[in-house]
Amino acid sequence: MTKLLIFPIFLIMIFITGCAGGQVVHSAYQSVYQSVEETIPQDESLYEDTEPEAAFEITLAILDRSAPVHIEEAEPRPMIALTFDDGPSVYTSRIVDLLYEHGGRATFFVLGSRIDSRRDVILHMHSLGNEVANHSWSHRNLSRASRDSIYQELRGTRNAISSVIGYSAPLFRPPYGATSPLVREVAAEFGYPIINWHIDTLDWRYRDPQRIYDVIMSQAEPGAIILLHDIHSTTAAAMEMVIPRLVEEGFDLVTVSEALAYRYGEIVPGEIYGVGFERN
Ligand code: ZN
User: Fold this and answer.
1) Which entry of 85, 86, 230, 252 is annotated as an active-site residue?
2) Is residue 85 flagged as an active site residue?
3) pLDDT for res 266
4) Known active-site residue 70
5) What's the pLDDT at 17?
6) Average pLDDT of the chain?
7) Largest CB tally within 10 Å, which of 83, 146, 195, 229?
8) Position 174 in a domain
9) The one catalytic residue among 198, 229, 230, 252
10) CATH assignment at residue 246
11) What's the sign of the alpha-carbon dihedral 192, 198, 203, 209?
């Protein structure tokens, strides 16, 4: 008698559990639906007489076609921020083209005094997604300069960049990476964080493309800011090897702003990012 009762009860339990499971799955589809409805225009006819699971497949197909919307963010790839100082020069466009060919971009810390003779190069780098940022007007050591001099150096270059592309990236790299409390204070007034570097290639001292390549490839790590100078032919030649190799190794070549936003979230004016020299 007991055995006769147990079997039907067992069947009823399976039935109840199955229904509950079904409801959980269904409500998960519903929540995806709701978030999708907020992000893309709906064509109601697509969903008529369609079971939830099939409708979900249609939704995924629509999402796939309207690219930038993703249900789940892909894991971000490691980033490297190449930075080029002291230009623009005759070698800059070669570097800009290489970056573009390999789907990368970089940050160029330009000197205000060099902008007027190479406005086309500034436009070129900007139009291909690179960042044009402030490296002072004359490249003097600002850690020894007066408040007024620091202010003039920053303002002149900011205005010169804006006069070409209508905007100047809110980033400042002091010449020689040399700061002082006064440099930081004036930079903060302009809304500039101070951007130094993590990897110093010493490309200005050793004019050897292979050496530049070796330094970068042996030290490259996610989030690194790399210091280079686009005023040497040897640096441009090194980029012919470095840029494709970094991409092959899975690095995204990004601007400093992108790298810092990813690493720190908020970027604080007057704060120093990376390694440099500070005079007290
Ligand atoms: Zn410099």
Assistant:
1) 85
2) yes
3) 85
4) no
5) 40
6) 81
7) 195
8) yes
9) 229
10) 3.20.20.370
11) negative
